[in-house]
Amino acid sequence: MSKIDLFEIRTDILCDVYKATGNFKIRKTIADVLSRENLDKSTLDLYNDFLRRHPEFKIELPDEEEFINKGFVTGARCMKMVHELWSRPDLDDLIEIHSDNSRSYGRENHYYFFGETENPGEFFQVPQQGVILNQKVEIDRTRHPVLYRFLFAFVFYVTSDPISFLSYHFEETFKRSLTDYKDFLFIVEKENPNLIEPGKRIWNKWIEDVPPLVKMTQEASEFKALFKDDRLYNYVIGELSREDPEKWFDSQGNFIRVGRGNDSPGAVCDLLSLLKQFDYFKSSIDFSNPQIAHYAKSCFGVIVGSRSSRINHPGNPFNELKKRLVKAGRV
Predict the structure, then answer these.
(1) What is the largest CA-CA distance in the chain?
(2) For residue 237, which of 26, 29, 43, 152 sits 20 to 30 Å off, Cα-Cα?
């Protein structure tokens, strides 16, 4: 697992790395997220699935005869299943066989059952539903904004490298949109002061030291004005401002793909054509040959003849861009 993985707001990271299952509120929050994603199951299904994978752990449960005859999960039987699931290691793909043929296991099953109290194994009522907490699921901040912010604050609180954690989400999650990121951090801090306060000096230092934004040129503003909305524009700039495989823009949308010999006119036409084809631009945008030449000059400072074959005949950059960007409807 790489260092970058440790910065993700992901259920397996929270549980296996940061031991979130030891905290009732965190455990319940993760269970709420997974249940909203329809990743919860009945206790009986969880137990039967575990026995299917590991029949050696089968034990006699209460009310065996009644269950066989009626298929009814009584309170006593359900509680016993819960305790068995909590106490057994999860062996799938996590067995390490040593030179003396002994075995060790990477983690345990971590289940949260609705109705559980702050003390694992104690329940307000008979538990019928549960979720496996350490599934590898990335938590979507748009679908679960409040829960995401709480878990973001938790990772900031427990990570050994909070500065890199904050920088990672600035670059990767918010695509260097400082205004949006600062708004997000303000809400996180307001909602979770107890988690932020221990690292408040680091929190403030990152905000104060973040590199100043480069001023957007008039050309970059002209290019941005072609897009349907800021969301699509930010996506394109975020994807094409990466070093790998090739950097087309800086983080503020200024065109920097230069020094490539005489292929810039064709590459710019390819970019405009792809974005129009992928439905990023406003429907009112005129895409006749003279206008494409005009956009190349006004948005990128690149001169293209209005009758140039580069306008209507995509080259290699067009195919490369298709691999890096998705259609507007999938953003």
Answers:
(1) 85
(2) 152
Q: In what order do the strands lie in the sheet with 40-42?
A: 40-42, 129-132, 111-113
| Mean pLDDT taken over the chain | 86
**Confidence bin at 252 (pLDDT 50/70/90):** confident
Q: Name the residue among 96, 88, 82 with its Cα closest to residue 56.
A: 88
Q: Measured between alpha carbons, how far apart are the two ends of the chain, in Å?
A: 27
Distance, CA of 63 to CA of 70 (rounded, Å): 10
Write down the pTM of the prediction. 0.60
Interval 160-205: pLDDT, tens: 999 989 988 998 898 878 878 988 999 999 999 999 999 999 999 8
Contact 105, 90 (CB under 8 A): yes
DSSP 241-265: T-SSS---B-TTS-B----STT-HH
Is 296 in contact with 311 (CB distance < 8 Å)?
A: no
The answer to whether 216 and 176 have CB atoms below 8 angstroms apart is no
- Helix intervals (H) in 90-248: 145-158, 162-168, 178-191, 193-196, 200-209, 218-224, 230-240
- Residue recorded with tokens 């999860």: 90
> Amino acid identity of 21?
T
Task: Name the helix (H) or strand (E) containing 229.
Answer: none
Report the pLDDT value the prediction gives residue 278, as an integer from 0 to 100: 93
Of 76, 61, 84, nearest to 130 (Cα)?
84
Cβ within 8 Å of residue 160, ≥6 positions away? none
Number of H helices, E strands in the chain: 15, 5
Q: Quick one: average pLDDT of 261-280?
A: 86
Q: What pLDDT does 93 receive?
A: 60
Beta carbons of 318 and 270 less than 8 angstroms apart: yes
Q: Identify the three-state secondary structure at position 39.
A: coil
Q: Residues 6 or more apart from 56 whose CB is under 8 A from it? A: none
